[in-house]
What we know:
Chains A, B: It comes from Thioclava arctica. Two copies of one chain form a homodimer. By secondary structure, chain A is an alpha+beta fold.
Amino acid sequence: MTYCxxxxxxxxxxxxxxxxxxxxxxxxxxxxxxxxxxxxxxxVVAIMTAGSLSVTQTTLARLREEIDSSDATGETSIMxxxxxxxxxxxxxNTMAGVRKDIVSRMEMERVSTSASMIVAGQRAGGxxxxxxxxxxxxxxxxxxxxxxxxxxxxxxxxPILDRVVRSETTLEDAQKAVLLSMxxxxxxxxxxxxxxxxxxxxxxxxKITMQRRLEAGDPDFARMSEAWSTALRDSFTQIQL
Amino acid sequence: MTYCxxxxxxxxxxxxxxxxxxxxxxxxxxxxxxxxxxxxxxxVVAIMTAGSLSVTQTTLARLREEIDSSDATGETSIMxxxxxxxxxxxxxNTMAGVRKDIVSRMEMERVSTSASMIVAGQRAGGxxxxxxxxxxxxxxxxxxxxxxxxxxxxxxxxPILDRVVRSETTLEDAQKAVLLSMxxxxxxxxxxxxxxxxxxxxxxxxKITMQRRLEAGDPDFARMSEAWSTALRDSFTQIQL
Lengths: 241, 241
């Protein structure tokens, strides 16, 4: 499984993904699930992936080919597309195309080709936008009413987001929120695992403002996780039945 | 959907269920999902249900018929079975039988006959035992290592249980834990809803020690829920990134 979460806030966007991939319980590996594309000051696009690794890797490979192609246009390259909506369309169509190419072979073996992505980005002069791309290639967008999107194993980590994330949340609090949301998920589902990839894109920066990998045993994350456990247990003790 | 949770602790057992049932989003009703059977001081059995309402209702009806039957034996009646293990077997076999009877008709309409149950009980001279009965009628048992069982929409409410529930947890703390676990679930999933049924079976009481229905707007539950939200937000604010 996977857990990826993206917040779309007034101050910017915060993204967090795990890295665990598994084909059955006895075949576990670490794969990056967050991919960033920058033309600093002009355009930034970040993609997080969940689902079939062969589908998401092939989709990313095709997107990169189009970016590097000598005849790339705004219709084919996510770095030239005129709007973020067009970026989401290109990614959705590319993923749907990859699935279509392999689905008949995969289904022979009853292997799922399902996959989904979170796409976050901004181009100079435009707004920040964040999309969740479904396996079929269609998508929904984060809004002020629902300022976060999740893919993969999303349920364990949702209650904390529901309680603390608003559009006005600061980028610092947003990083705490996604890390604690991930912490709950890591504790409850073995198939979501460290290391983690964290990225912050401040509004109008049009670049990756901060990016960081948290390895297993990261002291900051361990301290936060422990402090949160202690705080929850203390709060629990104080509440009257 | 449904959310039911049962804790098996040194001091006793604590059970909580919601009451929302739906056939699609436009057909929502309230049905009790917790059923108790008592021969006070001699035997207590509590059953919580999730899944197809027609399957769980028919299963309960057949169990009651067997209890009331003039030729009931320890092989057929959960109130005469010699052990709690046998009680779980009777319930599992009854449910599997109900599903077998209707599955061909239900599958014509592509309606799921899946259902599951939590069974908790004690007979005089025996230990408290708690089982999760799967749709196929087989079951697992709560143990000291895993002192809680959940059925239905279990993910939102699991992190709090993972953090605070141990075999040594008091019955008072256990009631807080299941109510806060339900609170997280209610906030995140519309198809789980008030009122709630709460029951406590103290060790060696061999009866329902306490049973209570919490209606929508229950002031105690609302106060706890609000206090927990406030405590979580305060804790969140104090934690350093």
